[in-house]
Structures are given as structure tokens and as C-alpha cells.
Amino acid sequence: MAELVLRSLHLDGETSSMALPHDLGNLSGIGFNLPPWATSFIVWPIVLLLSICILTFRHLRRSKAEVIDEDQPGFIVTRTPIFYDILQQIVRAALLSVAIVGCVKDGSSTVFEACAIGYTLALDAFRILVARSKNSRSAVVHHVNLIVFIVGLFAFIQLSPNILLIATQTEASQWLYLKLAASVLSLFVAFITPREWTPPRLSFELAHREQAAPSPEQTCSYFSYFVSYGWLTDIILKGAKRRLVIADMLPVPEYDEPLIWRARILEARKRFKTTLKTLAYTLRYNIGGMVFFAALTAVVEFIAPLGLYRLLSYIQNPAAATIRPWLWVALLFIGPTMRSIAYQQYIFSSTRLVVRTRLCMIQEIYAKAARIFDSEDPGQNPGEKKEVVPDLLDGASKKKSERSSKSESITNLMAYDVDAIWNSRDFILVCVASPIEVTIGVGFLYFLFGPCSLIALAVMLLSFPIATLLSGTMSRFQREVMKKTDRRVSLISEYLSSIRTIKYLGWEDIMAKNVNTERREEEKLTWRRNLTAVAVAVLGDTVPLFALFSMFAVDTLVLGHPLTSSTAFTALSIIETLRLQFVWIANVTRFVSQARIAFGRIDKFMLGEEEIIRHPEGPPAFHNATFRRAQQEDSFRMQFDGKFVVGGLNVIAGSSGSGKSSLLLSLLGETVLEDGSATCPRDVAYSSQTPWLINDTIRANILLHEEYDAKRYDRVVDACGLRPDLEKFERKDLTNVGVNGANLSGGQRQRVCLARAVYSRSELLLLDDVFSALDSVTQKHVWEKCFHEDVLQGRTVILVTQMQAAKDGADLVMELSHGRIVSTTRRGGLRQNPNPPTGVRQIPPRYKQPLETVTALDINTNPSTHTEGFEAKVDQEIAGQGRNSRVLFWHYMLFFGGTGRAMLAMLLCLLSQLAFFAIPLWLSVWVGASSREDAKTIGFYVAIYGAWLLSFSTIFAISQVYLQWGARKAAHTLHEKLVTAAMWVSVHWYDKNPPGRLINRFSSDTYSLDTVLVEYLRIAIDNIFRFILRLTAIGSIMPIFALPAAFICTIGLVCAEMYTRAQLSVKALTSASQSPIFSFFGEALSGKAVIRSCAGMQEAFADDLARRLRVYARAGETQYNLNRWICVRADGCAAVIALFTGVIAVSMGASAPAGRLGFSLTSAIGLGQTILTMVRNMNELEAELNCFHRVREYASLPLETDSAKDREGEATAPALPESWPAQGQVEFRGVAVKYALDGPDILQDLSLTINPGERVAVVGRTGSGKSTLALSLLGFTNVTKGAVLVDGVDISTVPLRVLRRRLTIIPQEPVLFGSDVRFNLDPSQTAPDEHLTEAIGACSAVESLGAPRVSNDASSQELGENLNSSAVALNLDTPVAPRGSNFSAGQRQVLSLARATVRRSKVVVLDEATASLDHVSDAAIQQVLRSAFRGKTILAIVHRLSTVMDYDRIVVMDSGRAREIGPPLELYRNEGIFHSMVRQSIEHGKGGEWTPEKLEALEPTDAHSVGSMNSCTSI
Questions:
Q1: Does residue 94 have a pLDDT over 50?
Q2: b/e per residue, 643-659, with b = 16+ CB within 10 A?
Q3: What totals of helices (H) and strands (E) does the chain contain, helices first?
Q4: d(CA 1058, CA 1273)
Q5: Cα gap 1293→1474, rounded to integer Å
Q6: How far are the Cα atoms of 783, 1399, 1409 from residue 776, in angstroms, in the given order?
Q7: Which of 15-24, 55-64, 765-774, 868-877 has the highest mean pLDDT?
Q8: Which backbone phi and psi does 627 adopt, to 5 degrees?
């Protein structure tokens, strides 16, 4: 066969080969010059002997480990169905019968051949009845099929002269034909027989695997796996009927288990430094498979052009042919089919590489991020140098540097850079297939045109320098785009994480302007990059066509050779193949440039980030240790020396900003140790100052991977005072806490974190200010139940607090000031252990439970339930999503600028395809005219051909640029709408929707709008037009073609419709399955200190990530595999169309002009690629339009009441004076408040009047409705009854933007934004610097504000070189890290106070604003409130009662009602609720704030006693 194909290239119209039939009649063609009986006598004994020896040797070497007990419980073993075993035996028995009859009748078979076939029957019976091992059974199957293949091969060799040659000398035996047919049938049955599967041997990598059943790809037949992908048909049928859910996705094979790939990538990283080498080594077998199938694709690519050339030659001169034309017709079918099998297997391997790359890189990035320092440089991203960039605000001064959170930049590595790496996977195809295809293609052209083909090669080679230059330019633009994208996503991530503060302050428009300003810079670079990509695409699309034109022109004009249909259309087909390769190279060049940048960024992160170093294990102690808070040399330094009481209570006290929290972090190894040493136990329970919660249930947050012990759990919940709070929730402790604990109050969040630390089995507890947000009643309960009783018996506790009772009851008290221990007091405390442990207590290793197993009331230990929670969240995200409209692409194009511009884009695409189609059409005219007498000169045809080619190039370039311009406008409009929606949607929307979903819209979906979507749109439109034109061309020349074409296309369209319905669901699930990964990254990175402190917790969270990735892998692999299902069917339809076209062309013979037949055959061959590309890209477009749909959906979110029409300013409320509120009177008239309209009343029948300039404090137990009262004043709740008035104006009639700008709130959790102090005080930059400086000066009385911690190189240059002490004066240019991480919580709160003074509002709300401060700083702030806010109406929600005794009135809240209202002293002396709260506060006061003067003021006098009953109002 190989000799025949090679010889066919050299057969011209007048030559023939008479020796060929004789060669094919025996085995001389393969090296044996023997008659059939002699060949059989030699070959078959050797084959049988080798088979017996190999099987026997393998059986003897088989180890016992290969035999798995198939009855073992818990394992599912899949055997070959008995039906297929019987069917194979029947077919082989028929083959044996044919061989025996042939041997007896005419000698067409031999005895040895019959014995070999009988041997296969016996061997297969042994497999079915005796063999126990799956490997043994597989070996038998391979031996049997190999022997049957040899039988069929010998039969084909004997029959080949009769099958292939027109003139044959002898007739072959009919039994020989039957033997060949039976052999082929036997191999086909074996090919469609399902495979066996047995579970793999257990290993540590699969210890936590949650599924025992195999994936269908592991049990399907070889035909289904390599050719038809029929193992996906079931999910296609399900998807065609209904929307799919995660449970419908295919199981992940054990070889794609995320735990396995995590182990492999981490092991590879130890061997290689660079990410490229690490990833290549990890995926080397996957890459090897891609290389093989890419090379095979390149080779079989030219089978169809070979068939086309020989078929056209036959039609031109049928008399000179020696080989039957049906062989060439068959090649038109065999070539596309083989290419489809090879290419789809390459794509199958490459998409599997996509999933594995994500599994590897995401887990490795997380593993690295979990080990690096948590402290952030406000001006530096991971692995990037500092640089000065323009300010985000128009007209503002230059920033010191870009403020980008490290955790957000790490998330960008996972979101953008990992995607950029796997997007470049086709670099393998280009490196392997392109050289092979170019070599074969140029050789083929040389055979057709001789030296003229070198001209085409020269034209293509000369274009490479231009392509290289454009590629470098695109790479440079891509690098800049990624930087801008990082900054924009970091900015929006920071704003979304602090959206409540932005809304409290009415800064929505300002922050939206910042994001949009950064986006415009990104858009400029994106436009330049896309234009460069257009230039690369145009170059790749047109250069091969110009090369063909040059070759035709020289061959006809210079050399004078006639242009025949066989050479012209074969050359056109080959050039089309080369053109597609150039297009591939252009596309891959773009992706490779992005991947190079991504590899560099990841390498900088992996190699450049310093990892934390744990202290030696031992009792907690510092030994003359000097620490630096961050890696920067000028960051805050601390010096500690001291030992803690093991088994006792150790209290850390000091003013705000003195370094108390940094001491705990230093003990954990979270800071940089410069000198000295420290020791710490390995297993520590750490509760940070800012509560860290995961978006899960209350129970999951308390347990946090610990085993559930109901008795111990209930005791901890009671001790932490959570029982009353849980009773208020409908789902008790299964209530979801929301993102960052948004569904809980501040005190509830702190107590959940405290309960987590107490419930843990760690020997050391580090508790950072856990009492700050608690009211006095709750504080007393927690102190007595948690610290007095034996809940913490025998455990060392280091507590940062200002509570005086804790200092009095501590075994050791350390006082800190400016990062140093200034005093240490030891005393016999409440919990001192008389026999403290002398060494480190050995904690037995424990298995950390998956989070999802602890969220159910009935704890289920079945591992298959571990991922159900993730799957439910994914299903919930896409619930309610219907299929996108068929015209959704048109809705997208309308964003180009309206209907006219969308129609113009369609028209340009149509003109481009008409020009492209005119090129082969004119070529058919040119070829047909060479035989006519009235033909024009050759120059005429060459000139018209060149004109059409130039027209196509021009129109194609214009259409590309126009589409990119429209896509830019659409992305710009949608992004602005999305930013507006993100800022103005109700704050309660964020309680139910994690920010990860919205960040997904701003990151990956926006990237699709910028780059991907428009490419899919262009390719889909082009291929629709091209498909219609090709069908029209074939049908006009061959009218009989219409019937089979209509039938085949109908089948293809039905398959495409079924595929589309299923794929849209799967695509949505794949996208939704990434949201839990994004959310997990954000949560885990924000709580790194908590996670790292506890032994085994890092591994447990890494396993949690693997579970989320397993859900993604199920959806992702299913999505990619479904593409293979439709592609092979589209290829099959195209191959059948080409086959029918060839049959019709042969039957028409010389009745049709050769040029027209060549044109139709070329169109038929190209139709296959067109159908495949059209079906694939139309469905990819529809799936990619989900990005547009999601962005448009979120951009259309219902905005807050009136904000849509009022956010432009106060013009919508002309009756409201500019000075409102001028007095500051606040009135609640019988108000009832709900958060959700269908939820319970939070406030009930509240009536309260606050007079202008009055200071009113609202007190009450945690959860009593204090914060709700304050939020109602700013329009964050639904007032269902009554009204809230400010200066007599109902706030429901005031635009929210105006309301929140005119009133001021200092929230419970102070938030600063990454920039500088000036921006945080006045982001609108409307106040002069004098006012800002005055605000800072007004707060300078607070000691903690005098020494901010600055960790930025740019600031050090401005503030001087003498920063060794790190205590510098605060000014407007002092840099602020994202979320103010370079300031302590107290310092952030003081800056929030300064921000409030700048706003100069008549009404100021303080929501537990002093909770994080010591009593000295609190007293200083109260003094600031008296001076800076003199004459202002102040509504303060407080827990520290000593600071509000001089307020005008007190409102005592309980269960949403105002129980007592009156002056503080009168309420106290009335001995009601407020009296009991004050007495408890005195007994358990924070930081000794109850000074003798304050206590003396509480002593009653006769005058006070008389007035108390008249002035106090009790409700």
C-alpha cells in the first residue's frame, strides 16, 4: 500500500506499471519473495510461538499485587459485557469456518492459518473463563486482535491487485474476500467492545478520593474513545432535554485527581526553578501525546490533496489511468477522517492539559502564598518593582506608588496568568505540525510546479521578520495591559471588600470614577495590542495567498506553462492548508507572548517572595528578639524580651499602636526576626484583632476542620455567650455568616472567632482584643464562663486586652509602648497551673475534617458528601439561567453603537468572504479558458486574480479593525455600567452574593469582552457566510449533490442543536465552578496567620482547595470533551460530503469542464474545515456570550432606591437647601425597620427625638438593634412603618447620594483605602489642604496617631532618611496600604475620626468607633468629639459606658425596642437596665477607665434623687 501511494505521485498520464500486480500477488513488496503456502509455513508458526512464549513469561512474572480481589467491598469493578464476548467468539468462529473451507476448496487459506485462528478462539475462551487479572485479560485481547489483524493483512495483500488496479490478470477466490470481510468484522467488534476497569491500588495520593466509580472514558470502547466519543452521548441527551447540574457531569478519573497533581507539581518544583520547566516536567507524558498526535495530523493532512490531484488527473485523461478512480475518491473520505481522528485526539490531550495545568498551578500558587509573609508593602505587587504612576483622580497630584494588595495580586496570578499559560498550549502544535506540514506542502508544490514553488516559499519566509516584529510589539503591549489589569482588578477588589464603608460615606461616584479612570488607561493599551493582533492575523491570512499568486504568475507568465485544473486546485488546497498554519502561528504567537509574561510573573512570585520561618518549638518566649513588621527595611521595628507563664493567663496591654498585635504575630513567626530568638509551640489557636471568618455556617467556622464533639461544642458555645444569639437565627448554628461575616454583628463575629480558638485542641491560645466589640453584659459572661471556669484549663492563653478585670486576674501582665516591653508584672492569677509543663506538650496528630462534613446536623462521615456543598453552590449560581437567545450576538453587536454600525460590521464580513470566494472561482475560469480559442491573454487572468486577492486583503483588514473598534466600545460601555451597578446596588445584595462572583465579571468576563468574544464573533460570522457560499458553489455545478447534502447537513444541524443545549449548561457550570475557587483564595489568603498558626490547618485548607478544584475538573473536562463529540460528527459530515462530491465528479466524467469540477471538489474538501470551524465557533460563541450575558445581567442589577435617578447630584431635589441639615435635629416617629421586606422586624415602634447639638449614646446588648438604628438614619434599611426625619425632612424623600454625603458615620470597623492620607480624608479633593491638616491636628491629641507604621520606600524618601525608629509624624502624603494594613486598628479608627471632621456634617453617627482603642485614647477621642464636633448632633453606639456618662441622653436598646431613654446619671440612679449595665462595666471594666472621679460622680445626692423620677423616661 505504501509503495502504491508513493508510486501514484510519480504516475503521469502516459505511464503504467506492469510489475506492480505481480509484486502485490505475493509478499515481495514487504521483503518476502515466496509463494503464499511457503510464507504461511514460515510466518504462522513464528507468530504462534512468540505469542505463547510472551503470555507464559508474563504469567510467570506476574506479581500478586496485580491481582485485585474483585469482590472486595467498596470497589466497583467493570468487566466486559458478556454480549460482546459472545459476539467476538461468533465472528471468530465464522472466520475459522471460512479459513477451513478456503483451505479445502481452493487453497486460499492454509492449515497453519486455520490453526492460528483456532488459537485465537481458545485464547479468548481462556480470557473469559480463567484469567483473574485485568492486565492478563488485556494482554490476551491484544494478542488475539493482533493475530486476526495479520490474517486480514495477508488477505488484503493477496486481493490488492483485484481491488486497486483497473487491469487484473486473474480472478481472486470468493473465500478470500469472505476471509478479509470476516477479519475486518472481527477487528471492528473488538474495536467497539467496552474496556474493563478495576480500581487502582490505594496510595496516599488517593486516600481522600471521594468516588469509587470509573469515568465513562475509562470503560468505553477504543472506537468510542479514539473515534466517536460516544461515551459522551448520554450527557448530550440529558442536556438536550433539561438543564444540567454538577451531579450530571462526568466523574473525574483517578489520574486527574487534584491531590495527585498537587504532589507532582510540588515534587517537580524541587527539581527545577523555573515554572516552564517545572510544568513541562510534570506534564511530560501529556505533552508527549500531544506531540505524537500533532505529527500524525500533519502527515495525514495531505491525503485529501493527494486524492484530489489524482482524481482530477483521471478526469482529465481517464484512458491513461492504471489505478481505479475509486481509490482516489476513497482518499477524499479517508483523509479527512484520519485527520479528524488524529487532530481531535490532539485537542483531547491539549484540553486535558488545560485542566491539569490549572490543577497544578492553582494549587502550587496557593501553597506558595500560604508560606509567604502576610505583611504587605503598599506600593508593591508580588514580584514587581516599585514604579511611580499617575494618580487615579483627574487633576490630582502624583501618587507615591500604586497601592495593590498582595493577596489580590496573587489572585490575579491565579486568574490571569494561569489562563495565559494554558492558552499557549497550541505552541506544541505549531512547533511540531507546522514544520512537517510546510515541508510536505512545499515538497508537494515542488512536485507540481518545480522550481517555481521556491518563489512561494521565499514569499512566506520573507514575512517572518515582519511577524516577529509584530509579535514583539504585541508582547510589549500585553505586558503593559496585564499591569493595568492587575491594578484595576486590585482596585475594584479593594473597593468591593469595603463596599459598606464606601456606601456609608456616599463615595460611590468617587470610587467609580477611580476605577473608570484606571480602566481607560487599560483600554488604550488593549486597543493597541488588539490592532497589533489584527496586523498579525491579516499577515498570516494573506501571505500564503500572495505566495500562491507569485508562483502562478511566474509559472504561467515567465515559464509559459499551462495552468491545469489538477495542478491549480491541488496547489490551492495545499496553500489553504499552509494558510491555516500561518493563521495558527499568528494566533499562537499572540498567546505565547502572553504566556511568556505570565511565566515571568509567576517565576518572580515563586522565587522572589520570602517565606516565613517558624521559631523553634518550645514554650512561648522571646530572647532579646528584634522584629521587623514587614520585609521593608524601614518598617516598624519591635524589641521583645520575656517569657510567658505556661498554663496561665498572660495579658498584653498598652496604648493603641504600641505593638500589641505585632507581638502576637511575632510569636507566630509572621514578622521578620532580625536579631535574638524566640520559641513557640507548633500548634497555636490564634484569634486576630479583625475577626476572620469563612463564608460558611457558624458551626463550620467554630469547628474549622476539627472533629465534631457535641458535648464539648455545646459547652464552648455557652462559654462564649453565643447561645442567645443562635436562638435568634432560624437555622441556629447552621446559619451562614456571609462574606467576611456580613450576616453577624461585630460582637458576634468576635465571639465566633473566640469559640473557634477555645474549641481547638491547641496548647497555646493567642487572643487579640476579643472583648473590644462586646457589651458589658456579654463581656462579663464570656470572662466568667470562658476564663474563670475550666474550659481553658491547662492551656496557655496570651490575651491582648484593655479590660481591667483581665489585668487583675492575669498570671502575667506585659505593658507595651512603641514596640517595646516597658513593664512585666507577675502575680498569682486565676488560672495559674501549680505544676506547669516543663517542655512542649506533644499534640497527637489528628486528621482535619473537611468543612462540608461539619455543616450538617447529622454528621456524615461518608466521604462522598465532602464536595456536595461546593456543588450546591455552583448549581445555585446558575439556577434560573435560561438558554441565551439566538440573537444574543446581535444584542452584543448593538453595543457597537447601534443598529447601523452593527449592520455595517456584518456587511464588511460578507464582502470579505465574497472577495475570498472569488479567488478560487476566478481560478476555475482561468483554468477553463486555457483550452478555449477565445481566451484572453495570460496577463489578463493574472491581473484579475491579483485584483481579487488585493480586494480580499483590504476588506479583510478593514473588517477586522472595525470589529475590534466595536468590541472596544462595547467593552467600555458595559464596564462603566458594571462599575455603576457594583457601587449602587443595595448593600444587602452583597450579603447573599459573594464578591468573588462580581470580581469574576470584572476579571475573566471583562477579559473576554476585551479580547476573546470579538474573535469568536468574527470567525463565526465568516464561517457562516463561507459555508453558504461553498454549498452554493457545489450545488450550482452538481445539482444532484443537493439531495445528499441536505440530508447530511440536517443530521449535522440536529447534532449541533443537541450539543449546543448541553454545552451551554456545562459552560455555565464550568464558569460558576470557578467562583468558589476565587472566593476560597480570598478567604484563605486573608486569614493566613490564623491558618498557619494551627498544626495541620494548612494541609486541611489545601485539601479544601483540591475539593473545589475537583468540582471544576468535573465541569471543565466535560465541557472540553463535548467539543470533541460535535467536532468528530461535523468532520464526519464533511468527509461524507467530500465522498459524495468525488463520486458525482467521477460519474460526470468529461461532461463537465475540469475547472468547474476542480472548483467544486476544492469547495467540498474545504467544506469539511468550514463546517467544523462553523459548528465549533458558533457554539463557542454562544457559550462565550455567557460572559457578555453575565456582565450585562450584573450591569442591570436593581440599584438602590432613587439612586438611579439621583446619583447625578442634588438637581433632582431642588426643594432641598444646600445647607441641609442646618440644625441637626433627628426624629424617629414610630419606626419599624426590616433589612429584607420579607424578613422580621429588627426595630419595632421606635420613637425618639434628638435635638440639635445634642449628644445621644445608644447602648444595649450585642444584637439589640443599635447598629440597625444608625443604618436606618442613612437609608440602609427598609422602613415599613413610621418615618425618620432630619430637620423635619423625611429621609425617604432625600436622594441617597445626598443623604449620605450630608450625614457622617464613623463605622465600627475602620476602613482605609490604598493611597495616601489625603485621599482617605477627602477623595473628592474638594477641601483645601488647610482643612485636612486641621483635621489631623484636631486628632493629634490621640497618642496612637503620633507614630503610624509606614512601610513604603517612596514615603521614606519624602519623610527623610532617619526612619530607623519608624516613628514619623503623620502628614497628608503619608502612604496608606490597601485596607490600611500599615496602621493599627486604633490608628485606622482615629483617621476615620479625622475623616469625619473634614466632612463637617451637622449629624454624626459613631458606631462603636472607640471599641479598638485603649481607655486613654478613648478619652482623647471623646475630647476631640467635644471640641471638633461642638454644636453637632452626635448619635453614638457604644459599649464602653464610662465614656458616655457626660452625654446628654442615653437610649437603652433591647430586642429592637428603646427600653429606657434619659440622662445617664438619672437612668443609673433609677436602677433599671442601664444601672445593671454600668455596675457590670465597673466590675469588669476595660483598661481601668472607671477612674475615681467617674465613680464619685455616680454617687447619688438628694437633688439628683428628687429630679430623677421627673426627668427619666422608662419605656
A1: yes
A2: ebbbbbbbbbbbbbbbb
A3: 54, 22
A4: 54
A5: 35
A6: 10, 32, 16
A7: 765-774
A8: -120, 155
The pLDDT, as a whole number, for residue 231 is 92
Instruction: Please name the residue ranges forming H helices in 735-848.
Output: 746-759, 776-782, 804-808
Contact 447, 512 (CB under 8 A): no
Return the SS3 of 679. strand
pLDDT at 593: 80
Cβ atoms 1470, 1508 nearer than 8 A = yes
Torsion of CA 652, 654, 656, 659, to 10 degrees: -60
Contact in structure between 746 and 1411 (CB atoms under 8 Å): yes
Q: Which residues contact 1046 (CB under 8 A, 6 or more apart)?
A: none
Cα radius of gyration (the chain)? 39
Judge whether 1412 and 1389 are in contact, CB under 8 Å.
yes
CA pair distance 1363, 1351, nearest whole angstrom: 10
pLDDT digits 0-9 by tens, 1239-1264: 777 888 888 899 998 989 998 877 78
Give the global pTM: 0.76
Rounded mean pLDDT of 353-380?
Answer: 79
**Residues 979, 1439: Cα–Cα separation, whole Å:** 37
Cβ atoms < 10 Å from Cβ of 1044: 16
Cβ pair 443, 621 in contact under 8 A: no
Q: What is the pLDDT of residue 586?
A: 72
Q: Give pairs for 395-401: CB < 8 Å, separation 24+.
A: 395/1325, 396/1325, 399/1315, 399/1316, 400/1316, 400/1352, 400/1354, 400/1355, 400/1358, 400/1373, 400/1375, 401/1352, 401/1353, 401/1354, 401/1375
Hey, is 650 helix, strand or coil?
strand
Length of the chain: 1515
**643: enclosing H helix or E strand:** strand 637-643
Alpha carbon dihedral 715, 719, 721, 722, in 10-degree steps, equals -30
Q: Which stretches does DSSP call E strand in 260-380?
A: none
Residue 802, all three cell numbers: 484593655
Q: 3-state DSSP: the chain helix, strand, coil percent, rounded to 5?
A: 65, 10, 30
CA separation for the pair 57, 49 (Å, rounded): 12
Helices 1154-1195 and 325-369 pack at an angle, to 10 degrees, of: 20
Between CA 1443 and CA 1128 the distance in angstroms is 76
Reference 1376, options 1400, 1395, 1361; nearest CA is 1395
Q: Is the C-alpha dihedral spanning 1131, 1135, 1136, 1137 positive or negative?
A: positive
DSSP codes joined into one string, 1251-1317: -TT-EEEEEESTTSSHHHHHHHHTT-SEEEEEEEEETTEEGGGS-HHHHHHHSEEE-SS----SEEH
State the DSSP code for 744. S
CA angle (283, 285, 287) in 5-degree steps: 65
Grid coordinates of 1255: 449628644
Residues contacting residue 1337 through CB under 8 Å, at least 6 positions apart: none
Segment 788-803, tens digit of pLDDT:
888 888 899 999 988 8
Phi, psi of 815 (to 5 degrees): -100, 130
pLDDT one-digit tens code per residue, 966-990? 999 999 999 999 999 999 888 878 8
Q: Provide the edge-to-edge strand list for the sheet that holds 1278-1286.
A: 1243-1250, 1226-1234, 1278-1286, 1289-1290
Q: Is 390:396 a contact under the CB 8 Å cutoff?
A: no
Question: Which residues are CB-contacts of 83 (< 8 A; sequence separation ≥ 6)?
Answer: none
Asked whether the predicted pLDDT for residue 836 surpasses 70, the reply is no
The one-letter amino acid at 13: G
Q: Are 638 and 454 in contact (CB under 8 A)?
A: no
**How far out from the chain centre does Cα 316 lie?**
57
Residue in this structure with the C-alpha cell 421606635, named with its chain if needed: 1246
